[in-house]
Amino acid sequence: MRIDDASTLTRPSADPAPVPAQPASAPPAPAPPREPGVVTVEKTLAILEAVAERGGATAREVSEALGFPLPTVYRLLQALVQSDYLVHLTGQHRFELGYKLDRLGVSLHRQIGIPTSVRTEIGRLHTLSQTAAYFAVYRGADVVVAYVVDSPDHPRLTPLNFGFHEATHATAFGKIMLAGMSSEQRDQYLDVHELTRLTATTKTRRQDLYAELAQVATSGVAWEIEEFVPGMTCAAVGVRNGAGMIIGSVAISAPSAELSERRQRDIERHLRDASNQVSRYYRSGALRRANTATL
Amino acid sequence: MRIDDASTLTRPSADPAPVPAQPASAPPAPAPPREPGVVTVEKTLAILEAVAERGGATAREVSEALGFPLPTVYRLLQALVQSDYLVHLTGQHRFELGYKLDRLGVSLHRQIGIPTSVRTEIGRLHTLSQTAAYFAVYRGADVVVAYVVDSPDHPRLTPLNFGFHEATHATAFGKIMLAGMSSEQRDQYLDVHELTRLTATTKTRRQDLYAELAQVATSGVAWEIEEFVPGMTCAAVGVRNGAGMIIGSVAISAPSAELSERRQRDIERHLRDASNQVSRYYRSGALRRANTATL
DNA sequence: TGAGCGTTCTCGCAGAGTGAGAACGCCGGG
DNA sequence: CCCGGCGTTCTCACTCTGCGAGAACGCTCA
């Protein structure tokens, strides 16, 4: 059973900034797209990430990659080393990631807080249904992937790593969560999140989406057939707390080609079983943070 | 928490610089101990860690905990949110950790890079010997815990988490690694790292330590009996690469009381077995980064 | 209705961060 | 042996950035 590795760089969601075309000229001040923010902090974090991406780097590499002058890079590198976000491998003349990042990662997982019983249940879902298996929860106003179990034979959908929280309209667990919101919450949510087209069959009109959500609400199961990634299908069932509110969702993904009608029925059954088990956990006490997802 | 370099030595706590006459000002703060560094960055990271420690926090909590004025805290919080190191749960008026921290944690683990075959071997060591099991490697000039397998019945020693790299003189795997260094490397290492007393039996004199290291080098196994944590004993065996150099170490920890002579023999056997298996992996190709530990 | 909190803005000042440049030690190659 | 290149640290004067008191706005609760 693997926890979570993989995950590489995802394209930074390019904001629709005006002036997308930088005229190649103007070496002086082409005014980068970025909003103000605290410049020093942004530079520092950029350096940290540069070191992370290339699995360690020399100061010069960072300087060239980011276009920051060398003295600045050294200064900020040292600040990061001092706080244990980086280590300086003096022998190898390299900077690599520091151990605080592990501790922070652990803290993050603790904040999301998926109990072991739920983890094993998702593991069972993976084994029984022979698919990648997911657990998603509300976090604040977002819907986020909180746990994944997959295997070489049944790998996760590449973007669906821990922390994924986009494309709610185009994922099975996203539909479950949208269907679980009050209509005002849903409207507000969709006012902020566009119905981006991802494949030929992605539902990009609210009308269509609402119609499906109504159906999801009654049937209790959401399917998503190649609306997110071509050739792949997902399915999900909601998880409810003691008050009957949807607080999360168990889900699977599999190649569409492998899904005979019979297999679909089996999967639905496994999803409902898993949902029941997980819901049972959340019904019995232990509902830690207020999951009422105020939006 | 590092104790290393000389920079601390150069600056006496209260520097009696020329111009001692401060213009009558400064009745309040006599300037805290901290060395310069990039102030903004330090503040920002302090905020990040404050949020991590308390599992999410409001801006005001952070402000009070760290003594930074509110507008500053908000500004830096936003910088962190913008870079995905924090999320702002607007519904709950809280800031919590962001998903980039997971990605950075994963990158760190990838940089340390313990292959799965080694992981399973440490798992087996845990099961067979019925103890917490560890794998440690050189990283730059340091010796760091790279992987741990434990269980409720056989928990790890509390400080021995991933990333632990102190007290080399008082841990079994540390002794293995010290024994594996050239004498110049060892001397240099010990010039920088004090032989801190941790328990009544910690070896704090180089003499004593060197004597034991010589014995470790010949026997191939290091024991550490309550020199690190009272009541707990550790043992370790080295892992060698194709060139015969020590590049890591497998280790276990257990309560001293549970270690009959027979059990000690069993544990030594299991450690040697594990070491052989792991060494085999590092012998066959795959010796990625130059582990020659230049110091 | 008002107090308290979360959150964002404004704005003038001070000082922090900046970055060209030089310096130092170390290495490997000519 | 000396030179050139690299990693690393320091200096220093200038400027622009981050600072933080304070006020403002909206919300929730009593």
Automatic annotation (TrEMBL), chains A, B:
Protein name listed in UniProt: IclR family transcriptional regulator
List each copy of the HTH iclR-type domain by range.
38-99
| Keyword DNA-binding attributed | yes
Q: What keywords would UniProt list here? A: DNA-binding, Transcription, Transcription regulation
**Region Disordered, residue ranges:** 1-36
Entries under Gene3D superfamilies matching the protein: 3.30.450.40, Winged helix-like DNA-binding domain superfamily/Winged helix DNA-binding domain (1.10.10.10)
InterPro entries noted in UniProt? GAF-like_dom_sf, HTH_MetabolicPath_Reg, Tscrpt_reg_IclR_C, Tscrpt_reg_IclR_N, WH-like_DNA-bd_sf, WH_DNA-bd_sf
